[in-house]
Amino acid sequence: MTEGLTRARSLRPGVSALIVVDVQNGTFNDSLAATKPEFFAAARDVTIPNLARAIAHCRAHGVEVIHTVIENLTRDGRDRGLDYKLSGLGYPPGSWEARVIDSLAPAEDEIVMAKSSSSLFNSTNIDYLLRNLGVTDVFVGGFLTDQCIDHTVKDAADRGYYANCLHDACMAETHARHEAALACFRGYCRMLSTAEFLALPLG
Fold first, then answer.
1. How many whole angstroms separate alpha carbon 68 and alpha carbon 24?
2. 100 lies in which domain range?
């Protein structure tokens, strides 16, 4: 039975959660202005300000905010998934690179989850955690659209969550890759701009 099911749902404290994926010093820092200028400018001028607005809105209305960071359990990263090992991706526990950037720093008692795979559903207990919290609706933003955002949205949908992507609060290394990724996983979620997210009815 699918009668009555819809993605057009409100933002509800205790039921909704904003998941901010991998917006940390290792994935966004000043050195990227030279090496990845398209990503750096878009993240600085659009993605991060939109995430800040979304986070502030959730905090003001009692909606759970959950941060994820790429962070090994071990200093040498031997616990990482094979793809992260092959890609050379991973940051030591407690390192500067593994910390959420200062402008989006977690508030007191907000959850920060370390992960070592593209989808946080694979290398964390996020599914267990969300069910304990009573969350059924997840709103996702962060980095990178064509990697960790894509995996997280699809896995959330497959596990029975109402998945939502804040399409102007995430970014890939280029605008072309960002748009291609959004087109790829559009069928798994509701696409919302940050303005549309802020305008969702509450409760």
1. 9
2. 16-198
Which CATH number does the domain housing residue 121 bear?
3.40.50.850
Q: What are the beta bridge partners of residue 140? A: 19, 165
Does 45 fall in a domain? Answer: yes
Render 113-140 in DSSP notation, one character per residue: EEESSSSHHHHS-HHHHHHHHT--EEEE
Q: Is residue 100 part of a domain?
A: yes
Number of domains in the chain: 1
Q: What is the mean pLDDT of each run of 10 residues along the chain (203 residues)?
A: 80 97 97 96 98 98 97 94 91 97 96 94 95 98 97 97 98 98 96 98 90
Provide the CB-side half-sphere exposure for 26 (13 A, CA): 19
Whether the link from the prior residue into 82 is cis, omega within 30° of 0, is no
In a domain, 4, yes or no: no
Query: Position 116: which residue type?
Result: S
CA distance 126 to 115: 10
pTM higher than 0.70, yes or no? yes
Among 179, 125, 108, 174, smallest CA distance to 150 is for 179
131 falls within a domain: yes
Nearest 5°: phi and psi at 199? -90, 0
Half-sphere exposure of 199 (CA within 13 A, CB side): 6
